[in-house]
Design brief:
Elements (H helix, E strand, L loop, with lengths): L1 H12 L3 H4 L2 H11 L8 H30 L20 H12 L2 H5 L6 H35 L4 H28 L14 H26 L8 H33 L24 H10 L1 H26 L6 H18 L1
Membrane topology: Multi-pass membrane protein
Keywords: Heme biosynthesis, Iron, Membrane, Metal-binding, Oxidoreductase, Transmembrane, Transmembrane helix
Pfam families: COX15-CtaA (PF02628)
């Protein structure tokens, strides 16, 4: 759903009135006035665009891998962290040392007590792969950026944007360890399973979403710098779509991040009869707004209800976008992306 929406939104962002109001008659002149993010030849633009698309896909895969580590409860298997990275255990003695470290963690004593060394190796490799995938991206990104900069392909505007994205990526590693560290602390109650802080998990996911969106947005800006030639009515239709798409994009982001509080509660599957159970509201609940806001972050029932409610609102909003724009005169690519986004949203909810 994210990919379809971002493709659609990126197309809209380029359809400004200044560049497109006279696109039907002066498209060549307008294209010449645009400031491209990549200099040199068409080949250079393709090379930089491909690199950024691959980087965005790399981040997407990393988010998926992070979800797998959570499902397999592998995230707390590595009890220390080094910024420069480290080699995995290579001998039986090194594996036993790592296993002894894990045995001191709250997760082992509460959930995995008595697990075998083979089982520990599995969860260790899952978390190690997740961390090394991120470090590998940082290295490849830095080397590629240096190469294209030396070739003279990168403009100052694009260079600043890429430096910002690289800094966010480096910060993501720090936030990831900050998140894991919260799960290595003893729970305040004996009846609570060791888990990472849902606040830190939400921050980790939100930053991943920002980096992914930034890379994809930049890749599209590099790959398609010139807006298509549109009629005046197509420009007006695109402007209306953009006004509707921006708040929907914000809602999509909030819905995604709110899922971290459901996952962080470890009770996301506790309420299987939504919206009936755990989601009953009345006017008498309004005075307790402060308590509700607190429960949104700390109570599994409220967090689950709100997340599913926002997901439903997202689907309805995207459906409304499609319905309200079906009679507009739009560029075929825009109409195609609206349909694609609706299909992705429906599949995501299902």
């Amino acid at each position: 759903m994210k990919i379809g929406f971002l493709f659609c939104y990126q197309d809209f962002s380029k359809l400004s009135f200044r560049n497109l109001s006279t696109a039907a008659s002066t498209s060549a002149r307008d294209a010449g006035e645009l400031k491209h993010l990549v200099t040199a030849s068409h080949h250079a633009r393709n090379a930089v665009g491909t690199w950024l698309f691959v980087s965005a896909a790399w981040v997407f895969c990393m988010v998926v891998l992070g979800g797998v580590t959570r499902l397999t409860r592998s995230g707390l298997s590595m009890t220390d962290w080094k910024f420069t990275g480290s080699l995995p255990p290579l001998s039986d003695e090194e594996w036993l040392v790592e296993f002894e470290k894990y045995k001191q963690s709250p997760q082992y004593n509460s959930i995995n007590k008595g697990m075998s060394l083979a089982d520990f190796k599995f969860i260790y490799w899952m978390e190690y792969a997740h961390r090394m995938w991120g470090r590998a991206l940082g290295i490849v990104f830095a080397l590629s950026f240096s190469y294209f900069l030396r070739k003279g392909y990168i403009t100052p505007q694009l260079g600043l944007r890429l430096c910002g994205l690289f800094a966010l990526g480096a910060g993501q590693g720090l936030i990831g360890w900050w998140m894991v560290k919260s799960g290595l602390e003893e729970p305040k109650s004996e009846n609570v399973e060791p888990r990472v802080s849902p606040y830190r998990l939400a921050a980790h996911l939100a930053l991943a979403l920002i980096i992914y969106s930034g890379l994809l947005w930049t890749a599209l800006s590099v790959d398609m710098p010139d807006p298509p030639a549109l009629s005046v009515r197509e420009v007006q239709g695109a402007a209306k779509v953009k006004r509707l798409a921006v708040p929907i994009g914000i809602l999509v982001g909030i819905t995604l991040v709110s899922g971290a509080f459901v996952a962080g509660s470890n009770e996301g599957l506790a309420y299987k009869t939504y919206p009936n159970r755990g989601c009953t509201w009345s006017l008498e609940d309004l005075p307790r707004l402060k308590q509700f806001l607190s429960n949104f972050f700390q109570n599994a029932s409220t967090a689950t209800c709100c997340h599913r409610g926002m997901a439903t609102a997202t689907l309805i909003s995207i459906g409304g976008l499609w319905w309200s724009t079906r009679k507009l005169i739009l560029h075929p690519s825009i109409r195609s992306e609206i349909k694609s986004t609706l299909i992705h949203a429906a599949v995501q909810v299902i």
